[in-house]
Write a structure and sequence with these properties.
Elements lengths: L43 H17 L26 H6 L11 E2 L6 E7 L4 H19 L4 E7 L5 H14 L4 H8 L11 H10 L5 H8 L2 H16 L7 E4 L2 E4 L4 H15 L12
Parallel strand pairs: 2-3
Antiparallel strand pairs: 1-3, 2-4, 4-5
Helix pairs in contact: 4-5, 4-6, 4-7, 4-8, 5-6
Length: 283
Amino acid sequence: MSSSPQPARKPSAKPAAKPSAKPSAKPARKPARGPGGKPLLIGAGVVAAALLLGFASYTATRPDDSPSAGGGPAAPAEVSADPQSGAYAELEKLARREAKDPLAVGRADAPVVMVEYADFKCGFCGKFARDTEPELIEKYVERGDLRIEWRNFPIFGEESETAARGAWAAGRQGRFWQFHAAAYADGAKEKGFAADRVKALAKEAGVPDAGRFARDLDSDEARASVKRDQDEAYGLGATSTPSFLVNGRPIAGAQPMSAFTQAIESALAAAGSGGKPSEKAGR
């Protein structure tokens, strides 16, 4: 398995290349949906968290931000809402925990769920997928502490949408994470994600039935699935990729490993102490 508001935050200089973390044509935003596709009832605390996530999404990767070949990230990005407001608890409900979800890795009953909203054309998303996610899987997913749930959040136009549908179609044949790895490999996004290229990536990912993949890629079901994820992200106020929720706690950008470790350790401590983080959490 493997998986940037196009963010990426590492303690280093800002990227030299031009950023690109905002949708060129922003789809209409709709209310976030909870499990089963039902509209999520957003309380005041969730609205506050959504506003924070949206703000951090923008500041972590302003329009046109993109990583340079060896550069570091853009600006700041971890976001936090007051847990007492109930925001975390409401946002935590967005974890679907579907045991057979092909776009997720880790136990459905893991104490911590990280939901990732990402785009295959996002350079910072690729950086997170290559540099950070494998470590999180080895350190937390494999021991049963963490589940990672992918959400397609295409914001860079038609090719982003095509790649998102391709990922979903690969998942129908149990090859989502292999497709994810191929699409985020170094240099992959520079080749674009036109339909023929996405089909080539599916072959590279070992998708067994090319005919079925082609049909699924163009299906109404694929479009509906991608739209559901996209609507959920926009409903949260996310404006760039990647954006994350760790047991409901918003994090914007491809942050360094330490930012995710702190959030996950804090969530584990809270889960093990009746919802109250221990003093050692996040250290």
